[in-house]
Amino acid sequence: MDKLDNALIAALRRNGRASLSELADRLGVTRSTIRVRLDRLQQGGEIAGFTVLTRSDVRPHPVRGLMMLEIAGRGAEKATKQLGRMAEVQAVHSTNGTWDLIAEIGTDTLERFDEVLFAIRRMDGITRSETNLLLSTRR
Fold first, then answer.
1. 139 in a structural domain
2. For residue range 2-55, what is the model confidence (pLDDT) as tens digits?
3. Are 75 and 109 found together in one domain?
4. The domain containing residue 116 runs over which residues?
5. Is the dihedral angle over the CA atoms 107, 90, 51, 27 positive or is it negative?
6. Is residue 49 part of a domain?
7. What are the DSSP E strand ranges found in the chain?
8. CA–CA separation, 118 vs 100, rounded Å?
9. Pairwise CA distance, residues 79 & 128, whole Å
10. What's the whole-number mean pLDDT along residues 92-105?
Protein backbone atom coordinates (compact mmCIF):
# COMPACT_ATOMS: atom_id res chain seq x y z
CA MET A 1 0.00 0.00 0.00
CA ASP A 2 1.22 3.45 -0.85
CA LYS A 3 0.17 6.98 0.07
CA LEU A 4 -2.72 7.01 -2.42
CA ASP A 5 -4.06 3.67 -1.17
CA ASN A 6 -3.99 5.00 2.40
CA ALA A 7 -5.71 8.22 1.34
CA LEU A 8 -8.38 6.22 -0.53
CA ILE A 9 -9.09 4.05 2.50
CA ALA A 10 -9.25 7.15 4.74
CA ALA A 11 -11.74 8.78 2.35
CA LEU A 12 -13.88 5.63 2.31
CA ARG A 13 -13.85 5.53 6.12
CA ARG A 14 -15.28 9.05 6.13
CA ASN A 15 -17.89 8.21 3.49
CA GLY A 16 -18.15 4.62 2.29
CA ARG A 17 -20.82 5.62 -0.22
CA ALA A 18 -18.72 8.24 -1.99
CA SER A 19 -18.85 7.83 -5.76
CA LEU A 20 -15.75 7.16 -7.82
CA SER A 21 -15.99 10.73 -9.12
CA GLU A 22 -16.13 12.18 -5.61
CA LEU A 23 -13.17 10.08 -4.50
CA ALA A 24 -11.20 11.03 -7.61
CA ASP A 25 -11.88 14.75 -7.05
CA ARG A 26 -10.97 14.54 -3.37
CA LEU A 27 -7.72 12.68 -4.06
CA GLY A 28 -6.75 14.54 -7.23
CA VAL A 29 -6.64 11.51 -9.55
CA THR A 30 -8.82 10.08 -12.32
CA ARG A 31 -11.88 7.89 -11.84
CA SER A 32 -10.13 5.00 -13.57
CA THR A 33 -7.22 5.26 -11.11
CA ILE A 34 -9.68 5.07 -8.21
CA ARG A 35 -11.46 2.09 -9.78
CA VAL A 36 -8.19 0.19 -10.35
CA ARG A 37 -6.92 0.96 -6.84
CA LEU A 38 -10.22 0.01 -5.21
CA ASP A 39 -10.37 -3.29 -7.13
CA ARG A 40 -6.76 -4.08 -6.19
CA LEU A 41 -7.36 -3.27 -2.51
CA GLN A 42 -10.42 -5.53 -2.45
CA GLN A 43 -8.77 -8.41 -4.32
CA GLY A 44 -5.65 -8.16 -2.15
CA GLY A 45 -7.72 -8.31 1.03
CA GLU A 46 -6.79 -4.84 2.30
CA ILE A 47 -10.48 -3.94 2.06
CA ALA A 48 -12.29 -6.90 3.53
CA GLY A 49 -15.80 -5.56 3.07
CA PHE A 50 -18.20 -2.69 3.41
CA THR A 51 -20.83 -2.16 6.08
CA VAL A 52 -23.76 0.04 6.98
CA LEU A 53 -23.95 2.28 10.02
CA THR A 54 -27.44 3.04 11.23
CA ARG A 55 -28.47 6.02 13.29
CA SER A 56 -28.43 3.88 16.42
CA ASP A 57 -24.85 2.81 15.66
CA VAL A 58 -23.55 6.37 15.70
CA ARG A 59 -25.84 7.81 18.36
CA PRO A 60 -23.94 7.76 21.63
CA HIS A 61 -25.61 6.29 24.64
CA PRO A 62 -26.39 8.87 27.33
CA VAL A 63 -24.43 6.85 29.91
CA ARG A 64 -21.06 5.53 28.80
CA GLY A 65 -18.06 4.16 30.61
CA LEU A 66 -14.94 2.05 30.57
CA MET A 67 -14.70 -0.98 32.81
CA MET A 68 -11.22 -2.31 33.44
CA LEU A 69 -11.21 -6.01 34.32
CA GLU A 70 -8.77 -8.38 35.94
CA ILE A 71 -9.29 -11.99 34.84
CA ALA A 72 -8.27 -15.07 36.83
CA GLY A 73 -5.78 -17.39 35.14
CA ARG A 74 -6.35 -17.91 31.43
CA GLY A 75 -10.01 -16.93 31.39
CA ALA A 76 -9.69 -13.85 29.17
CA GLU A 77 -11.02 -15.60 26.05
CA LYS A 78 -14.11 -16.89 27.87
CA ALA A 79 -14.73 -13.49 29.48
CA THR A 80 -14.34 -11.76 26.11
CA LYS A 81 -16.97 -14.04 24.57
CA GLN A 82 -19.38 -13.47 27.46
CA LEU A 83 -18.91 -9.71 27.28
CA GLY A 84 -19.38 -9.78 23.51
CA ARG A 85 -22.85 -11.29 23.96
CA MET A 86 -23.99 -8.33 26.07
CA ALA A 87 -25.77 -5.69 23.95
CA GLU A 88 -24.54 -2.89 26.23
CA VAL A 89 -20.89 -3.79 25.71
CA GLN A 90 -19.79 -1.78 22.67
CA ALA A 91 -16.22 -3.13 22.49
CA VAL A 92 -13.80 -5.30 24.44
CA HIS A 93 -10.08 -4.51 24.35
CA SER A 94 -7.18 -6.62 25.55
CA THR A 95 -4.46 -4.60 27.19
CA ASN A 96 -1.24 -4.83 29.12
CA GLY A 97 -0.44 -3.68 32.63
CA THR A 98 -2.68 -4.09 35.65
CA TRP A 99 -5.87 -4.85 33.71
CA ASP A 100 -6.47 -7.76 31.34
CA LEU A 101 -9.50 -6.38 29.48
CA ILE A 102 -11.26 -3.05 29.05
CA ALA A 103 -14.97 -3.09 28.20
CA GLU A 104 -16.65 -0.07 26.64
CA ILE A 105 -20.20 0.08 27.97
CA GLY A 106 -23.14 2.23 26.86
CA THR A 107 -26.65 2.34 28.30
CA ASP A 108 -29.68 4.61 28.28
CA THR A 109 -29.84 5.11 32.05
CA LEU A 110 -27.51 5.14 35.02
CA GLU A 111 -29.63 2.41 36.61
CA ARG A 112 -29.14 0.12 33.60
CA PHE A 113 -25.43 0.92 33.62
CA ASP A 114 -25.26 -0.22 37.25
CA GLU A 115 -27.10 -3.45 36.38
CA VAL A 116 -24.60 -4.18 33.59
CA LEU A 117 -21.65 -3.57 35.92
CA PHE A 118 -23.18 -5.89 38.50
CA ALA A 119 -23.72 -8.62 35.89
CA ILE A 120 -20.14 -8.34 34.65
CA ARG A 121 -18.72 -8.48 38.17
CA ARG A 122 -20.63 -11.74 38.76
CA MET A 123 -19.09 -13.48 35.72
CA ASP A 124 -16.83 -16.43 36.39
CA GLY A 125 -13.18 -15.44 36.26
CA ILE A 126 -13.64 -11.71 36.94
CA THR A 127 -11.51 -11.08 40.01
CA ARG A 128 -11.39 -7.30 40.14
CA SER A 129 -12.73 -4.29 38.25
CA GLU A 130 -12.60 -0.54 38.08
CA THR A 131 -15.08 1.60 36.18
CA ASN A 132 -14.85 5.15 34.90
CA LEU A 133 -17.82 7.05 33.52
CA LEU A 134 -17.15 9.01 30.34
CA LEU A 135 -18.33 12.56 30.95
CA SER A 136 -17.64 14.07 27.53
CA THR A 137 -15.86 13.30 24.29
CA ARG A 138 -13.80 16.06 22.75
CA ARG A 139 -12.58 14.22 19.66
1. no
2. 999 999 998 898 888 999 999 999 999 999 999 999 999 999 999 998 888 777
3. yes
4. 59-133
5. positive
6. no
7. 63-71, 89-94, 101-107, 126-133
8. 18
9. 13
10. 95
